[in-house]
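Annotators were shown the component list below and the corresponding predicted structure, then asked to write short factual statements about the assembly.
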Amino acid sequence: MGSTERIRNVAKRVAKWARAGHQMVVVPSAMSGETNRLLALAGELAPDHPETPYYRELDMLAATGEQASSALLAIALQAEGLDAVSYTGWQVPVRTDSSYTKARIESIDPERVRADLDAGRVVIITGFQGIDPLGNITTLGRGGSDTSAVAVAAALKADECLIYTDVDGVYTTDPRVVPAARRLNSVSFEEMLEMASLGSKVLQIRSVEFAGKYKVPMRVLSSFTSWDIDLAEEAKSGTLITFEEDEKMEKAVVSGIAFNRGEAKISVRGVPDTPGIAAAILGPVADANIDVDVIIQNISKDGKTDFSFTVSQTDYQRALDLLREKVAPELGAAEVVGNPNIAKVSIVGIGMRSHVGVASTMFRTLAQEGVNIQMISTSEIKTSVVIDEKYLELAVRALHTAFGLDKVE
Amino acid sequence: MGSTERIRNVAKRVAKWARAGHQMVVVPSAMSGETNRLLALAGELAPDHPETPYYRELDMLAATGEQASSALLAIALQAEGLDAVSYTGWQVPVRTDSSYTKARIESIDPERVRADLDAGRVVIITGFQGIDPLGNITTLGRGGSDTSAVAVAAALKADECLIYTDVDGVYTTDPRVVPAARRLNSVSFEEMLEMASLGSKVLQIRSVEFAGKYKVPMRVLSSFTSWDIDLAEEAKSGTLITFEEDEKMEKAVVSGIAFNRGEAKISVRGVPDTPGIAAAILGPVADANIDVDVIIQNISKDGKTDFSFTVSQTDYQRALDLLREKVAPELGAAEVVGNPNIAKVSIVGIGMRSHVGVASTMFRTLAQEGVNIQMISTSEIKTSVVIDEKYLELAVRALHTAFGLDKVE
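Structure shown to annotators:
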């Protein structure tokens, strides 16, 4: 939520739903820029800090952003003539573990909220935060308001969890790369999970996981539409993330093309193919706090194998140095080579489970465009390839067309 | 507290006390301007509002200011190398009634705080707020952080409650009116209460009442001194509000001259002197939500009496109209006259209890300066006179000198 003008618009939109007879629970994020403002103040005060007590206080601090916006939304709803009440995470309560700044929701007590809904009130619950077993305020980390909303919807067994975002839904791929990209009317939970984990930034991945665990239908829709659009139209807008594999979904073999820029590839060549080799290579990498994405181990030849993986470009040089200076000499590897400019492209589709030849269509399409595939990784509903970064847009566009995802004008 | 620079200075000051072996509990106010900023946002959203639900949300909103500054102070103390933890009102808990925006503290549970202090931690408690029996956040109203600090000090049986303000203590009178005004090293609780109620804005009157009830020694001192001044010097600075009438205090008959500008006087003349006349006149005034200060009823003459009282200048015309149009005709009063430009000057001193002639010194001093006294009102430790507003400064200066309060250069 941005200015008071935006809060007023949210209130009018909520009021529209409430007046149509829906029991409404709203989980607002902080006002635009507020969380960053607060964390910047903390950063000014403590450039170097002891971890746990500092993180506890960061959560005390950051939680105020949502508390303020929730109270303001309640006030705006009252000004609209509705009965509205706001609750902080601890008032509901939303119980979490004690992992400050990245806590996980453990349970939500729906009774207090349910009583208010039954009394005809709109209930506002601060997103992003909860209370730990010792009564400390915790926050769920960035994007946590989405997760809060899904968790609240699950606890109350809501019909649907509407996530208002700055985009109007989930697309077949990024429209900035492929102008022909289409908005999906619905997408399965598993597909959404793959797309979120593959860099589609529409929803925080934890919120999707949560929705999956508790089977909460989520709808991603735009907060930029006018509040007074027709309710029936709004209720069908955006993208529904669903758990029912309906017929329509069966038709689409591939639902979307996801991609990650900014990756880098590292190969350790000619390592002795003995048990524990993956751990011997990736253990030190993980210890250096470097996230590894795709991992490939080639078949062995003459008792030696090649081991490749991708990391983010920002970690590339550090990972390369680590492997060259410490890991490779210890393992007796032949050499460590890398490519700091690769990208990952993935086709995602629940229909891939029951359709053969999807991966080969992908490989053929890329071959026709002259795009060399450097690594391949597959899962049940997705196939990912690592390619030279410079071919990324070309590859995404070609695949989008090949799988029939282009918008029909 | 203002910028992060000011928070850092507060942290250094607290660290100085803590390192000298004091167990410290700190009750910060919100960062400068923050409470006004938040309330302005609420005002934008709800120009007209239903009372109770709106006030509940205002408290949710306003409480975030102190929560943020408390977390930031904890972070700043940690950066100073101290172990520090912040608690909101509900975490302590500070229990209040449910009078949103002007709640009263009912009890404070000292156990959690005591455990932290015993573990060597500095404890920060959000001022200005608490939790009601139903688990709602409440605030104590403007200046409530002072009251919170005193209440916490009482609950923990603290040696002293230091109130850091923008002045360096309590003065014999306002130094802007009397340059010779002196800072008092100590003042009795009763005197402070009279001075606070008479318009000395150093401390919120409720905090003084609270200190009186629980016998908490308070010290008013300046937040603008450098944090690294000598601790022993700082511990003696400012003004101590005390409950022990020591010898030094006995010597001063009058401790200070308080005054109120901006008052107005109204007289209802020639009303029949029958029982219930005060209620018949002041009842309608109170019903119109007009605060009355000094009230005087003259002795009766021929079965008629004159009844005078003062109100603030902003309420003057409304009160006058009400009395002339409704009250006076019903009572058969001769006339209603008023003076919209009067001021009240009071001498305050616990020594007045045991000294005769104090009031007459006051009247003689004013007579010598040619100041006409329009009304007189007395209590055990104060004598107030109502005079023409234009003589206010003259009267205050003359009385300050007459009672030996001037600074000795």
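Statements collected:
1. The interface with chain B takes residues 4, 7-8, 11, 38, 41-42, 44-50, 53-54, 56-58, 60-61, 63-65, 67-68, 70-72, 74-76, 78-79, 83-86, 88, 90-91, 135-137 of chain A (CB under 8 Å).
2. The CA atoms of residues 284 and 351 of chain A lie 38 Å apart.
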